[in-house]
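Service request form, structural biology core

Requester: graduate student, group of Dr. S.
Request type: structure prediction, single chain
Budget code: on file
Notes: please return the result as structure tokens.

Sequence provided:
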Amino acid sequence: MALQSEDYGLLQRLVDALYRDKTVVVRLDVVILAEALDFPDDLCEIISLLPPGKYSRQKLCDQMNSSISGHGWGMKYGTVE
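Core staff response, request fulfilled:
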């Protein structure tokens, strides 16, 4: 069983920050904020899997959760909503 990482919940904080003042973001917004927050490699990998495009909060969460689940990292890093 995977233990929670010290970075557990970091993706949720990223999503909350992205949508604090916006209803739609683009992939570049996500990448830039993750780099500014010095995300660890595993979480950068999740972000790098995002296809280019515009994302409502729900669409971004669905896409990220799919990648998190595909890697089996839900327990380690948490999912986003």
